[in-house]
Design brief:
With 92 residues, this protein is an alpha+beta fold. It is 20% helix and 36% strand. The protein contains two helices and six strands. It has a six-stranded antiparallel beta sheet with strand order 1-4-6-5-2-3, with no helix packed on it.
């Protein structure tokens, strides 16, 4: 019981500064195996997402554990990362 409370308390501190983005435009990496190269495509995500800028080691490790182009996206413009609200639902 105490461990669960302590864990939730720590998680609330992650991404204290986050901005809400509605229908953000993101870049998704697309590999081209015939050319042994890669490119990027632009995509508009539908819904509400968060733009976060990781500032601590805990935040960086949390983001590294998330699947790319599914829960974590690269924004078309600006700094930070776009993350899905589903990965933060237990931190609210």
């Amino acid at each position: 019981m105490f461990f669960r409370f302590y864990r939730v308390r720590i998680m609330k501190k992650l991404f204290a500064k986050r901005a809400v983005e509605v229908n953000p435009k993101v870049l998704i990496r697309k590999d081209e195996p015939t050319k042994n190269d890669f490119g990027f495509i632009r995509k508009t995500l539908v819904g509400t997402f968060f733009r976060v800028v990781p500032s601590t080691a805990k935040e960086v490790l949390f983001i590294q554990a998330l699947p790319k182009n599914y829960l974590v996206f690269t924004p078309e413009h600006g700094n930070g990362l776009i993350i899905s609200p589903s990965c933060l639902k237990n931190m609210a």
